[in-house]
Design goal:
Elements: E1 2-8, H1 14-27, E2 32-38, H2 49-66, E3 72-82, H3 85-97, E4 102-107, H4 115-120, E5 123-126, H5 137-152
Parallel strand pairs: 1-2, 1-4, 3-4, 3-5
Length: 159
């Protein structure tokens, strides 16, 4: 299986980059991992709704162009479904059994994701009803992907 983590923006804080790199390295023991970092559309300091929507639409084009045909898509979004680690593991297993050899996990910009991206998703996933800094999303999902793959492999990490 190939897991492609598609994110808008680059990690800047060393401690977050290091944590993300560590989980991605460990995840690589179970699957091939690709990171696709796209540049978010720049917005003014106080964007209006129209400017935000225009930016999300432009970002959707970049995101959807980065998704290979036939891939399963997981869109990280606040209104998505919350799942346990075991449920995420089962969903990844279901994708594989359904013939999806590539899973793209999409992390939008700080303004979120366009409805077009959400409609393309096979799963809309929310990490929590709590609010977290956007920059933590990548390390958090990398850890959960590693945990899910470890569960599927019968590993001890989850216990």
């Amino acid at each position: 299986m190939l897991i492609n983590i598609i994110s808008l923006g680059r990690l800047k804080d060393k401690w977050i980059k290091d944590g993300c790199a560590e989980y991605i390295k460990m995840l690589g023991g179970y699957c091939t991992v690709k990171e696709t970092e796209l540049s978010p559309v720049r917005l003014p300091d106080a964007p209006n709704d129209r400017q935000i929507q225009t930016a999300l639409d432009a970002e959707a084009e970049m995101i959807l162009d980065a998704v290979p045909k036939g891939s399963a898509v997981i869109a990280m979004c606040i209104e998505g479904r919350m799942m346990s680690s075991e449920q995420l593991a089962q969903k990844l297993s279901d994708f594989a059994l359904g013939g999806k050899s590539t899973v793209c996990v999409i992390i939008g910009s700080s303004c979120g994701l366009s409805d077009r991206v959400k409609q393309r998703a096979d799963l809309r996933l929310s990490m929590s009803p709590m609010t977290f800094p956007h920059r933590l999303a990548k390390v958090m999902i990398a850890e959960q992907l590693y945990r899910a793959m470890s569960i599927n492999a019968g590993g001890k990490y989850h216990k």
